Amino acid sequence: MLLALIFIPFLAGVLSLVSRNASLRYFLLGTAAVLHFILTCSFWFFPPAALFNNWLGLDRIGQLILSITSGLFLGAGFYAISYLKNEKHQQIKDFQEDIIFSNVPEAIFICCMLFLLASMTFLALSQHFGLIWVAIELTTLTSAPLIYFHRHHRSLEATWKYLMICSVGIAIALLGNFFLAVAASTGGEKPVSLLAGELVKYANVLNVKWLKAAFIFILVGYGTKMGLAPMHTWLPDAHSEAPSVISSLLSGAMLNCAFLGIFRTFQVCTAAGLGDFAGDLLIALGLVSMLVAAVYIIRQADYKRMLAYSSVEHMGIVAIGLGLGKAAVFGSMLHLVNHSLTKAALFLVAGNILAVYKTKRTNDVQGMFKVIPISAFLWLAGILSITGFPPFGTFISEFTILKAGIEQGRFFVSGAYLVLLVIVFIGFATICIRMTQGSPEQGIEKVALKQRFLSVVPPAIMILLILVLGLFIPSTFRNFLHDICMLVGGN
Amino acid sequence: MFYYSIKIFLVGVFLIFFGGILSLLFWRKQKLSILVGTLGAVSGSILGLIPAIKVLLSGGKESLYIAWSIPFGAFFVEIDAISAFFLLCIFILSIITAIYGSRYLLEYKNKSLAKAIFFFNVLISSMAMVVVSANGMLFLICWEIMSIASFFLVTFEDEHKHVRQAGIVYLIATHIGTAFLLVMFILLGRESNSLDFDKFAAIKLLPSSMASIIFILSLVGFGTKAGLVPFHIWLPEAHPAAPSHVSALMSGVMIKTGIYGIIRVLTFLPNPPLWWGWLLIIVGAVSGVIGVLFALAQHDIKRLLAYHSVENIGIITMGLGLGVVGINSGSQILAILGFGGAILHILNHALFKGLLFLGAGSVVSAAGTREIDELGGLGKNMFVTSVTFLIGAVAICGIPPLNGFISEFLIYTGSFKGLITKQLDLAAVSIIIIGSLALIGGLALACFTKVYGIVFLGEPRSKHAMNVQESSMIMLVPMIILAALCVFIGLFSSITINWLKQCISQIAGIGPDVVSSQILPLSNILIKVSFAAFCLFAAIAILLFIRKKMLSAEKVSIAPTWDCGYAKPDARMQYTASSFAQPLVDTFKMILRTRKITEPIKDLFPVEGQFESSTPEVSRDYLFNPIFRVIYLLLGRLRWLQGGNIQLYILYIALTLIALIIWKLR
Amino acid sequence: MLIEFMMIFLTLVNLIILSTSRLSTCIKVIAFQGIILGVLPVAGGQFDIQLVIFSIIAISVKAILFPSMLLRTLSQLNIHREKKPYVGYGMSLLIGLGAIVLSWWISKNLPLTITPANSAVLPVSIFTAFVGLYLIITRKMALTQVIGYLIFENGIYMFGVILPQKQPLLVELAVLLDAFVAVFVMGITIFHISREFDHIETDQLSTLRS
Amino acid sequence: MDNISIRIIQPILALILSPLLFGIINRTKAFFAGRKGQPLFQTYFDLWKLVHKGVVYSKTTGWIFRAGPIINLSAILLITLFIPLGHSKAVIFFDGDIFLVIYLFALIRFFTIIAALDTGSSFEGMGASREAQFSALTEPALFLALAAIACGTGKLSLSEILVSITSKFWLSHISIILFVAATLIIVLLTENARIPVDDPNTHLELTMIHEVMVLDSSGPDFAFIVFASALKLWVFTALFAGVLIPDIGFGFWPNLGICVLAVLCVSVVVGIIESCIARLKLLFVPHFIFIATVFAVLAMVFVLRK
Q1: DSSP secondary structure string, C137-185?
Q2: Is the confidence at residue B560, as pLDDT, over 90?
Q3: Which of B443, B539, B579 lies at the smallest CB-CB distance from D129?
Q4: Is-contact B111 B138, C-beta < 8 A?
Q5: pLDDT band, residue B1 (cuts 50/70/90)
Q6: Residue B647 and residue C86: Cβ atoms within 8 Å?
Q7: How many domains does chain A divide into?
Q8: Contact residues, chain B, for A401 at CB < 8 Å
Q9: Chains near B, with 3+ CB pairs < 8 A?
Q10: CA distance readout (Å), A489 to A285, A320, A326, B276
Q11: Is residue A278 part of a domain?
């Protein structure tokens, strides 16, 4: 089963690479996404058996990440079909500078999307730290060509930075893995293998100092991929230059995958009684991320970059939640889900806005309610949700984290967290809400009317899910999240 | 059967909400969508009134607890006397404004009204839910929904820049307020490890420092919504921007939810220290005086009314402070008078401020401008509007025999009672209350004589005011009802005060029977007041009769106004609002900081001169803007981080690594 | 004995890289490093067949594939020298010397209970990693940065080699493969860069900011 | 002497005697100016004459202008029921009737002002504006003064306060009495539009406050207005006298007589003041009123000192 989960998208990718026929490719993309989703859903009811003596297995956290990824990919996949149909023409006029550029061939694009899905699945399933590393590197490599979809110098620059920075970061993470190996080997009489389960089980015999080193290196390494400041620098560039559907995938799914790597290491640390040590690090980086995000979100001139920075902020929130431990972990996990759904939806809507207004500058976008009412509504809902307004789920998760922080007496952390949240909100409110109001310039209205069905349904569903999560959390899901908290000694 | 009446309430709330949904569905057929929305609002409100009135009169609690799956959350709603009182205000004004709005909205040509109706209904239902929700999570969610709904109503005419600006200011202000509330609820929950209100109330022996922190947080958080100085900056922006019936609802009851929050928190925190009372009274006094002063300096009628909301919130807060002082000093009558005056004033303000905003609305829709100086002489063509507005104006100045006087009368009596105890601290707070109330009264009178005199009397000052005609009956009837209610409470105050017994006793934490025994002499006094009022009416009637007799023989002639010998009297020569207010504005210029642009006329045959004055919000210009400017500056300092240079980026990674190692691995 | 010499060589070539501006030299050095790294596991003396296979693969990738790829890119680009870097070559050399001392000191203080085949391996690996990172940070050419990345990874790889507990072969191979693909993609990107900008100086690649 | 039928004498006296005050004041001024001056009962003649005249209404005005005088007169009539002459109970009294009285004055002010604005004349507007300004400033002073005296006596109703100003109390609280009296006299001058705040019989409209507001009134309406202002003066003087002169304790009638006498004297004093002081520049009037507030606060301080 698990292998099937990995190989479906992989094979589909290969096929779409070789196939000559566009509609066939779309078909492949759609079917792969659907199959993958169905399989993933089935795992909720029939837990699959682990493979290769536990090298591949599906534990709670993996299942969470996997489900998010699969769900988002389903939405993004269908959105991508409508998007690609829009982007058919060979030569495209760039709207920022007067340059003509072409797109990466569709085959490569779809193939890479599917490969990305495969590698993310692989990551979610892999239980061995070596494999995790490999998988994360794979996600980087498969997503790089996607960012370079529009062949012009800005996306090229973004791609280059993405590649370089992430590779360096991941290399550092490799060193962290080696340290982990050292810690595992120098502790007890016989070396412990790098399987997550084993490490957790024998955590008490691990060598503490090396474990600490390992966590720091892995945190910085995977943190780069996850977008924690100040290693986040690739993120806004990549998200703003990639096609919106890709940005939504990167922001909604890939960041979580990097987070998974950190989470597993954190798991080992808590098991070894280093919870506070690791927690402090996570909180520190989390706060820095929120600060940096706040710096760039106020007065941000480009709404896609805005969303990207907000991803940095929310990754910071997730890190803080994990670092605070106990009740906060629940909030953190919930926030992971909420952020993925909201941010993905927002990026997809941003794609619609871009398609109609032909600009990424917030000042040039006005009167969305008159031009693209549905997208405008979704956009507004998304903005409210991403800034933590009830009745959206994000409010609950952020509130939970804040509550835990205050109840643990971490007043400075909680205070900074709250203040930064408010500042970010101010940034969003002053910039993004204005886009929906007012009346548009002439000439835009005509473009408006034809808005593809597929381009609004996925984000709409995601927003709806967030709304549901804000009003009602199924008890099974709640217990599920509680089990995840148990993994890191939460409650 | 036991939960019967709260179920009714919930059904009502649902009806209101459902009406909103329907009106959204029927957005194509404008008339229909307005109809269903209004019907939903009215019928739902009437249903909701039933349990509210029952609880308010008979006391007791109606509660319903349903477990809820979101963390710390529970669907826990409870109507006690306090909630019931606020529900009364909310639903009455909702019915009135909904009916009014159903006609008023038609003024907006070619604009989709369904959105306005929908959010209006959402606003009503969320307000109702806010005052009954007995669980922190539920409260916060309803609270924020209320904010969002009102935000969309404020930005209804979002094609104007200033409206968008107002909306943003409002949203940010209310969100910052909510941030304080989050912390407050979490702290309360920390003490009682639950977010249910009954658990909060069960907290005893709270460390006094913690209690004070919670109180301060609630004062800031709820004060922002209520519009206490200096957190009131959003208010004078938002109210003019919104459609008038929405302003009436917002100013009449929505900002009162902030007061509700403060009261609710006070019931959680037993035996408050004296300085809380001091704080409340000082904040209230400042809000009252500042509010009325700025109101005096405004030229925009709705903005002026908005500032008067600040003033009245100040009066209410002073009443609360007096009550707190009473509780602290163990003098029950003081507590009863303070809290009683406060809540009665809440009701009264809901009535006459609603009335005034509706009146302003009908003026605006008739004349098409909010500039007071452009109007004049509207009283002749708009008789009903002018009379109802006059009643509202007299009431808000606290002049007998109308309701505004009664609530101020209670607060005055309370403070005098505090004064004659000759205890220094009681006397001191009483002096503050008396002095500021007196000043507020005088200034409010100046302000409303200005508004009424300039808008409705004299000659039209511009073509806007030339040939206006009276609004339709659907808009007039609600105003008449409100005016009637004002008169009723003014004349039968002793009855009204007895209705509020339960509520007062619950706020003050005094047994109902004690309260009624304390209220008895008070209501006797109020009966005397009503008697005096009737004497007044009798005297008026008699004098009218006498004058009729006198004039029956003599001739009554009509002539132009005596203009002291000017050749060509002209409407432009009339006193304007700004010239009327100018002496007082100058007297308080060091607070108001009015900006004037003057171009005096020169030499014998002068070319035209000009004079402009504007009074911007001081606390925004001198308090908040600087703060935000500093924050933006500091954050802006960091913008070089994302310099675009990849080598630098990778250096960050290396440095972070080193820093973390040095931090944690030494 | 053998390892001792290897280490000395490695240190020297690292220093050379720091001080040279000639790209081709850098690439040759990469190849040289690759060979050494490939031999290193077996150089300890124990002849385990799995190890041998792996080292062969490693050599073929690190010492042959990478350099050839890079050389091909270089020939396409028709440029030979790194223009002026952020830090001059002499200065870089000094810094390199400092780094050597530092890495020896660090490796002294590391509580490494295991004994590697040779006490020099650890410091040299650290030094190598440092040099790689240093190149990435201070040089402007995209190509040089790729080279830096390779060296960086080599350093880390060396550290992995001295671990007593071998990663399973599969993982090792996967790691290699990843590195390979990474470099491959980077090569492509560099090609595009050169075509887009007709130079590969990444300090020009800074239009996206804030 | 709590029997209502006797207490009713107080308002009746007010009705009868109040127009006399203007006469007295004018005579005093005339005396100081060395003129003969108008007859003492001039005001009565004026009222009589006005009552038998017709009225001229401006075509700008509406019902407000017609209702104003009536409402004002009835309000002031109502007030007289609360004002005790001498140290006995008034016709109506209850705890807190002070507020009712003060706010009834506010009612009068309100309708005077809007009636003035109803004519649309710039002069009457100007008068209205000044009236609004000054009365807004006097209100705190009056309130604080009454609060002080209430605090001293420990009573909340006007009648009881005055009743409890016995000679004993008077001696023990002389400082308070004086401060309150000082406040009251200033308030009296301001509220009744006397010099130095306003000059009732100048005819330079620009300097007038109260007179200019009634420029357009005529006939019975004007009669009502004049009568109302006479009553207002009476009420304030009675209050002033009641506070200043203690209960000598010979029962109701002597007190009444003394009080009436005192009222007349006060009007003489007002006349003297008017003839000694020049009219203040309008900009200084707020300062003048502020002095009253200062006195009131001082009184308060002295009360709480005990």
Answers
A1: HH--BHHHHHHHHHHHHHHHHHHHHT-SSPPPHHHHHHHHHHHHHHHHH
A2: no
A3: B579
A4: no
A5: very low
A6: yes
A7: 1
A8: none
A9: A, C, D
A10: 21, 16, 7, 43
A11: yes
User: Which residues span the domain enclosing A355?
Assistant: 274-491
Q: CB A433: neighbour CB atoms within 10 A?
A: 21
Q: Which of B58-67, B245-254, B510-519, B575-584 has the highest average model confidence (pLDDT)? A: B245-254
Cβ contacts below 8 Å, chain A against chain C, sum to: 108
Residue type, D41: F
- Taking the C-alpha atoms of residue C111 and residue C124, their distance in angstroms, rounded to an integer, is 17
| Burial letters A449-476, b for 16+ CB under 10 A, else e | eebeebbbbbbbebbebbeebbbebeee
Contact B515, B506 (CB under 8 A): no
- Residues, chain D: 306
Closest Cβ opposite residue C137 in set B639, B644, B647: B647
C contacts of A164 (beta carbons < 8 Å): 136, 145, 149, 186
Residues B547, D223: contact at Cβ < 8 Å? no
More confident of the two residues B120 and B610:
B120
Q: Kindly give the residue spans of alpha helices, DSSP state H, lying in B269-331.
A: 274-297, 301-328
pLDDT of residue B176: 94
Mean pLDDT of B395-422: 92
* Assigned domain for A373 exists: yes
Q: At A100, which helix (H) or strand (E)?
A: strand A100-101
Amino acid C165: pLDDT: 62
Alpha-carbon span A402 to A409, nearest angstrom: 11
C205 CA: distance to closest CA in chain B (Å): 7
Three-state DSSP at C44 gives coil
Distance of CA B114 to the CA centre of its chain: 26
Alpha carbon B251 to chain centroid, angstroms: 4
With beta carbons under 8 A apart, name residues in chain A contacting C153. 171, 174
Tokens of B496: 């009204």
A386-435 pLDDT, tens digit per residue, is: 999 988 999 999 999 999 999 998 999 999 999 999 999 999 999 888 88
pLDDT tens per residue, range B38-73? 999 999 999 999 999 999 998 888 889 998 888 888
Write out the DSSP string of B247-279.
HHHIIIIIHHHHHHHHHHHHHHS-S--HHHHHH
| B284 pLDDT tier (thresholds 50, 70, 90) | very high
pLDDT computed for residue D100 by the predictor: 94
Contact between chains at B643 and C137 (C-beta distance less than 8 A): no
Nearest to D209 by CA among D195, D199, D224: D199
Domains of chain B by residue range? 271-550, 618-665
Question: Is the CB of residue D92 less than 8 Å from the CB of residue D98?
Answer: no
- B141 contacts A438? CB cut-off 8 A: no
Q: By mean pLDDT, which of B23-32, B93-102, B393-402, B608-617 is the weakest? A: B608-617
Residue ranges, chain C, pLDDT below 70: 44-47, 112-118, 164-167, 169
* Residue of B334, B385, B419 to mutate when probing chain D, most D C-beta within 10 A: B419
Specify the pLDDT at position B82: 94
The predicted pLDDT at position A437 comes to 87
Element at B506 (helix H, strand E): helix B501-508
H or E segment to which residue B610 belongs: strand B610-614
Provide the mean pLDDT of chain D.
89
Q: Nearest CB to B457: which of D117, D130, D151?
A: D117
Cβ of residue B414 closer than 8 Å to a chain D Cβ: no
* Of the partner residues B186, B636, B642, the one whose CB lies closest to the CB of residue A233: B642
Per the listing, tokens 């502020």 go with D290
Residues of chain D with pLDDT under 70: 1-2, 202-207, 306
Q: For residue A482, is it within any domain? A: yes
Q: Which residue from D158, D187, D140 is spatially nearest to D100, judged by alpha carbons? A: D158
Question: Is residue A390 domain-resident?
Answer: yes
